[in-house]
Amino acid sequence: MSVKVLIPTPLQKFTSDRATLECEAKTVAELIDALEESCPGIKARLCDDAGKPRRFLNFYVNSEDIRFLDNTETSLNDGDEVSIVPAVAGG
Amino acid sequence: MTQAIERLKKTGTAAFTHLQCKECGAEYEATAQHVCELCFGPLEVKYDYDVLRRTVTRETIEAGPHSIWRYRPFLPVTTDTPIDVGTGMTPLVEARRLARHLGLKKLYIKNDAVNMPTLSFKDRVVSVALTRARELGFSTVSCASTGNLANSTAAIAAHAGLDCCVFIPADLEAGKVLGTLIYNPTLMAVKGNYDQVNRLCSEVANTHGWGFVNINLRPYYSEGSKTLGFEVVEQLGWKLPDRIVAPLASGSLFGKIYKGFREFVEVGLVEDKHVSFSGAQAEGCSPIAQAYKEGRDFISPVKPNTIAKSIAIGNPADGVYALDIARNTNGSIESVNDTEIVEGMKLLAETEGIFTETAGGTTIATLKKLVEAGQIDPDEVTVAYITGNGLKTQEAVQGYIGEPLTIEPKLDSFERALERSHTLNRLEWQQVLV
After folding, report:
1. How far apart, in Å, are the Cα atoms of B258 and each of B67, B122, B265, B325, B360?
2. How close A36 comes to chain B (CA, Å)?
3. Can you tell me the ipTM of this complex?
4. What is the mean pLDDT of chain B?
């Protein structure tokens, strides 16, 4: 499944300054591993020591927070858009 | 990357030095950035309290302007000429009638419903954010807003001559839309809730070179709320209250009132004392109150459905910190439903002559609930923070506050109507008793 991933500015040093990437993955968890393969070092920034997404980072699949879906087990389909967005904003 | 940073050159008595991650402690220069590159935790402004202790006294503050800028050394700006539109120093009113109604002895209302220039506490944070934005060289400012912030950013940007583009959810109250458009910013009404607006703005923030007051300028912006703590201390005669009650949206305001109190203790401006922090949420958007009740240390986001739109943030950035403060101060976080919110607005208006918006109704209804549950000692000096003005959310109370008595311009018409109004009052009174 080819999905588009939006990378936040603080992580673009891992993606050669690219703000979007194309990735092959069937779930969000797989996507994180796929990102690590193409951009080594990025997983340690995305996830805490237990391998879970950091609490100050939000993942969205087609604009929906994955915590309203199946978290990292949320399935991905061809053409989906995944946004990775720092949680600390607004208010 | 984090780095050993060179401290900013300071002018005057500015004592802020750098930004620091609240989670991992990494330090950053005081530029336009809001999250830690290592762990994505929030960045917070740090100060040299030795400088403040040496240079600031009660007298120097009292000799300052009648605005938030009397506390300038505690705010993250270097200029001697901040944007001062008379923001802050709003009344701290002793609410005797409301106190009696609730069964409290010493209750105060901090009334930011009459803050300047746009009648909400947001003028505090925006005055600081735009002053800093100008120092950092931004010519366009922006924000993601539930309404009050849009009003404030557009107004103060107009005053400062900055270009302005603000983002709001498309379903906001008419008064908040009109109260933004009048200043002629670019106004984006996003088809979605606030959390979706916020996410969009987070994605836009770094692409146009704009200063987003509550995103890349958020560390500076949020510091403006400390002045709600400073002013209460000064207005109580340089004393801390026993308890505060404040509305929770992102949770930022709550934490900054706390920080304001602690800073004044830290530099010796006020004697230390325990202060309990109670937070108020609307049941239709109460992710922090839910986490509090369930004993969780993390926030599960919710989709907002409440008339209290100004505090309808389903994914609150500072929610975990608000939880910590409520728990560590023997406070609480409570939620109230929309009916109680309207009743809270009416109660404050009828007992104190203050017309607040839905967020204020939430605060008063929560205060009432806490008193009724025996969670507030009647002898405590309690301060309730009213953060916005009721004229902006008229839809919320329309239909709940009666109608005028329409009469002919004749004496007998007036007499009949007066008699009728007395009868109506009696009926209402009898109904209450039954």
Report:
1. 20, 17, 11, 8, 19
2. 16
3. 0.92
4. 94
The torsion angles phi and psi of B110, rounded to 5 degrees, stand at: -90, 110
pLDDT tens profile B278-328? 999 999 999 999 999 999 999 999 999 999 999 999 999 999 999 999 999
Q: Which residues of B touch A60 (CB under 8 A)?
A: 199
Check which CATH number belongs to the domain holding A42 and give it: 3.10.20.30
B-chain CB neighbours of A19 within 8 Å are: 207
Q: Give how far A66 is from chain B: nearest CA, Å.
A: 10
Q: Which domain holds residue A58?
A: 2-86
Give A-chain residues touching B195 at CB under 8 angstroms. Answer: 65, 90
E strand map for B48-127: 92-94, 106-111
Q: pTM of the full predicted structure?
A: 0.94
Confirm whether A48 is domain-assigned: yes
Three-state DSSP state, B398 = coil
Model confidence at B9: pLDDT above 70 = no
How near does any CA of chain B get to the CA of A81, in Å?
13
List, for residues A19-75, the tens digit of each pLDDT value: 999 999 999 999 999 999 999 999 999 999 998 999 999 999 999 999 999 999 999
CB A76 within 8 A of CB B59: no
* Phi then psi dihedrals of residue A29, to 5 deg: -60, -45
Mutant choice from A14, A17, A56 vs B, greatest count of B C-beta within 10 A: A56
Q: Domain count of chain A? A: 1
